[in-house]
Design brief:
- By secondary structure, the chain is α+β, with helices and mostly antiparallel strands.
- The chain folds into 2 domains: 6-46 and 148-204, Hypothetical protein yqbg; 50-144, no CATH class.
- 25% of the residues lie in helices and 29% in strands.
- The protein has helices at residues 6-13, 21-38, 154-169, 193-204, and strands spanning 51-60, 64-66, 72-81, 84-86, 91-94, 99-102, 113-116, 119-122, 133-144, 178-181, 184-187.
- The protein has a 4-stranded antiparallel β-sheet, with no helix packed on it. A 3-stranded antiparallel β-sheet has the order 2-6-5, with no helix packed on it.
- The radius of gyration is 23 Å and the shape is elongated.
Amino acid sequence: MELVTLASTKAWLKVAGTADDTIITMLIESAEKQLRSICNRSNGASGWINATQTEFFDGEDSEIIQLRFTPITAASLVVTIDDVVTPSTSYVLDAATGLLQLTGSAWNQWGGMASFSSVTIPRLNYRSKGFGVGVRAVKAVYTGGYVNAAAVPENLIQAVYMLVEYAYLYRGQAGLLSEGLGSYNYTRGPAGYADLVKDVRTLVGATTSDTLI
């Protein structure tokens, strides 16, 4: 699923002719690929579309993992830890952002009293397992992504238009892309794009760093 069409992008650019259609199409593909990378999606166009997704995570004894392909159909989610299915009552999912967190009942805990010499103190409950420990110890299978173009957030579509517009207007021009000295930093890019991307990444629950063209 493509986020924008050639016709809608030309309307944004206020381009009436067809002479630059090939260039604009190429810029659309490049802009969408960059946004998929920024938003931690796959590089294929299927990175946005609603489909069955399978992700593996290294178990790091943490109670939180981040699923990439949002929004997520909560009822479709199946989580296994060390090949054992985790009951859905053992975790809480934020379907919009993809944050998956184990609840207290999912932890192995212990308590009681401990004696040291002549002093007896309560044992502190501790969390000993979380999402497990080991390479690819956690597997999540779920349906995630946008069901159609109408469901795609406007911020995401606008980010594509801004990237295409910037690349189209400055095509063929070399020059300073970025520089920094002390507290001064300059990065050439579409005005307002960096803030927009932050909003988009928050919206889709992405965790990768921003990259400007």
